[in-house]
Model the fold of this input.
Amino acid sequence: MVKEALYNYLLSETTALVAAHNKLALKPRDHAAVHEQRTGVKKLRAFFDLTDNIPGLKFKYGHYLNKVRMLQAIAGVARDAQLQTRALTAYEKPLSWRFGYAHLLLQEKQAVAAALTVTASKRLKLSSLKELPKIFKEHLDAIPEQRLNTLLLTYIDDTYGGVTAPSTKAGHVEWHSLRKKMKNAYYQLTILKDVLPPTSHYHKMLAFAKKAGELLGNWHDSSELYLFVQATIRKAKKEKLPLPVKAMQLLKILKQESQERLALCALHFPGRIV
Done:
């Protein structure tokens, strides 16, 4: 049943989000907890984007999301710095060189994010999130089950069924926007996974969105690292810091890989989503 699927999903995600928040209160640089918190907030936002389309459901969730939006922003900074540090180190190995200035900037980002996490953990209490599934269920119980599944799937069709990829000449912002749409599509189809019609095209859409998310995620990581290294080189030049030749070699490698990964994304979108 759709109502049960919605309630179970919300219960699972709020429980995971509170657990991640509690972990970070003790270990603000816990990589897994940072990832869980960031992803958990995105899933909650996708959930309420979906349930906003239930006629007659008058459930005000804004004050719940306002709390976790700040956590998402902090977790985003921390997670990006963690991933970029790991990736940068991997790219440096074949060059037998370390871009020290870039690592210093990333370490500073992680330190700032960790300090913000500690402050946020003290000031933002997520205990109210534990009540969220129960309160949501009480509101949802007042909505007739009939046609609920059809209404939500129609929303998914209307929102994602006609999505196409931008040109490979488009900028980072346009492709990142597509990535966010595909993540939302994947999360929302996952919410309804157990109630999808067995022979429907939604299973293909779910698989498509999952693969698209993976490809776009790989591209995004490469592109973000390329943009970061490019900006770091500009800062170093502005400050007249010595810049080894290998810094430009690294930038060239990152640009090429970003372009190659973008090409793979474009191949995944020959036309509209099924």
